[in-house]
Each structure stands twice: as structure tokens, then as C-alpha cells.
Amino acid sequence: MADTFRAWVIDRADGGQTCRLRTDLTDADLPAGDVLVDVQASTVNYKDGLAVTGKGKIIRAFPGVPGIDFAGTVRASTSERFEPGDQVVLNGFGVGESHWGGLAERARVPAEWLITLPEAFTPMEAMALGTAGYTAMLAVDELERAGVAQGAEVVVTGAAGGVGSVAIALLRGAGFRPVAVTGRETLADYLRELGAVEVLPRATLSEPTKGPLASARWPGAIDTVGGAVLANLLKTMAYEGTVAACGLAGGVEVATTVMPFILRGVRLVGVESVHQPLHRREAIWQRLAELMPSERLAEMSRVVPMDEVPAVAEELLAGRVRGRTVVDVKG
Q1: What pLDDT was estimated at residue 208?
Q2: 123, 203, 304, 306: which could form a disulfide with 71 (CB 3.0–4.6 Å)?
Q3: Domain spanning 131-270, CATH architecture
């Protein structure tokens, strides 16, 4: 009998889709690639939530396996970069969208999509960071490149979510003073434990404001929300302040003016996490290893077994998930 493994598989059905946990898959079902990985951990990201619930057109080729990131151990390889037993991590490159993803006990991918897992992390710890943590580190890196000074206040919107939670901890570790903005004020103590020096209600930036500019405060910002929040955030940036934008939970349209840019020299930097080159991926993951202690990861994450993925996806889209959710793929 062929060696089988489990995976969440999404397929078309009567104009919609089905998502079920299959237990009968074999290596022959996997897409092409030169590295076969025994996946140990994955996560439920926002895209995964949309894919699993069918509330977003995420899966581009059917049948498909969601899970835009994973960590595990190389089972077989025809690449010179990896050999059996190596621990690896992957995020991006359309995995979990156009290529079978990490919510499966096995994955086969091109070697150039993988990096060696930093020694500081176990696969579970790597996925407590996952794409959200990787994106947060990219955002912090963009602020540092822009010259935002250590010790400066950096505001983080959507602070209780996956990217926001990690961003708060990373900013504090990198020497900034993170200020959290959240619609879940009951999580204020959690955000302070992660390193926030102040917690502000969402209304601070979500309520309509008059005029093209407001009182200048923030030298740096990480925006995970978009929409009206980003528009208001731009109005409140300090002279030559920088906003690193990496989310759209609040909308993709931004109604703003050129005034923050031409009167205060504000910079809006986009954070793209899917197609970063290998050298930057490796540098970002090493920086994560330097700045994120394992005890902090435990504070901001929980672990669930594979069969809880649909329930977690619903909770995530409803805004009821705090921090990061790690999926124990073998559990």
C-alpha cells in the first residue's frame, strides 16, 4: 500500500468550493519540485482564512492545498542546496495559492523557494512567526532603512493581529518605542507585555478627520489595515516620517491628498513579502532570530491540531484571533 499523508484540499463544487481533510494523498499527488519536505508546522494567515472559508478567491489552481508558509524537515532532494534531514522554512512564491501549500503533512517545492531554518528556531517557533512575522520584520527593516531613529515612537495599526503583534515585539527589541492602535482594547495588557509603551483605541485613526493634515506625531509607522486608517495615519506623520504599509483588512482604497508628501516629506513604503530575493529572505530570518526570544513567541501564539483549521479560519476573519495561530500538522 502506498505511503499516504493528510492535507486540507480545496476543490470546485457547484459554483463554489469544498474544503476537506483528505487522508489518502501520496507523493504522486504533489506538484513538481526538487525538494520533498515533511511538514511539521504551518499557520493560518489571513489569506488562508479566505481560502479555507471560500470567502476569497485565493486558490488559483484546483484542487489546491492552502497554507502560505510552512517549516519542516527535508525528506528527499535532488538539489545541491539541501539534503535529507535539513530543516527548512518557506513563505511566499504563491505557495498555498497557485502551488500546494503547508496545510499538509508533505510538500514538494523548488529549492530556490526554501531557506535553511535558523538554528535559533524550532519549526513550531518559526511558524509562530511565519509570514506575519517575516512581513513585520520587513516593515521594521524598511523603517530602519528610511532612517527612523532608535528611541523614536513608531505607531502600529491592527496591533493585536498577527503582523501587528510581532511588529510590536520586534520594534521594542530593535530599540524603538512602539505605540499600539487596536480595536480590541481588552487586549491592552497583552500588547504592553509585548513591548507597547502606549495603547490607543482604533478610533484614534479610524474616525473621519477634516483637512489634509492633522497634528504631527509619528516619526515611523507600520500599517496593517489600509483604508481610512492609513489615510488618517498619513495626516499625522511627523516631518519626513515613514509609513511601512503591509495590510488591507480595512480596505484597499486610500482617500488622501498629496499634502503629507509635499509639505512634510512623508514617505509611504510598500512591504512586499512574496517575491523577495534569497539573500534578503535569509537576512530577514536571521534578524528575526536575533530580535525574537522564544518566550516572547510563546506569549503571542497558540498551537492547534489540523482538524481545527476551519474553525480558526472563521475566527480569524471575524477578528477574534489574538496574535499567531500555529498548526501542528502532525497533530
Answers
A1: 80
A2: 123
A3: 3-Layer(aba) Sandwich (3.40)
